[in-house]
Structure prediction request, 175 residues.
Amino acid sequence: MQDTNLHPSESLSFHQSGLSVFIRYLSYGSCAFLLFSIRQYITEKFIYPTPIKLKVVFDIIVHVSLIIMASYQLVHFFFLYADDPSVGKYCLSVMWGIYALVLIILGISKDQKHLRIMAIVLFSFALLKLFFYDTEQLGTIGKTIVFVTLGVLLLIVSFLYNKYKNSMTETKDAK
Prediction:
């Protein structure tokens, strides 16, 4: 079964125009302005001290928004410029893995547990998508590339966790 939004010949309502591209980037800018405004509101002095849960919720909203926008852009890019538009769907798993690695690094460096948990959840989604959705349509070489890439990313995450495990628990004990 193929997605009709990736195959314009199968969808009668598909039409890519300059206006739709303008509206997409206008909505990205509006979302960025909204998130910036919320951040400014959270860091104002009249909410001092800022509740920790408010910062955690804001971080979650920002990173979920970023991953949704990046995923959409990746699929759209491969739809426009790749010979096979379905390649974008397979690259999503790799992109989610890379973004999860970035979240792990941020979570370890800033000592923020919620970022590390978000990274684990994102890795889980990437792996579930890979096993249950991508493998039925990927060829042998594609499966190998995606599995090896995500495996390397998981090894890097495991290495980082083991290397900085003691420093994460020491800062937790010191508080």
Q: What stands out?
A: The CA atoms of residues 35 and 62 lie 7 Å apart. The two ends are 53 Å apart (CA to CA). The chain has a mean pLDDT of 78. The chain has five helices and no strands.
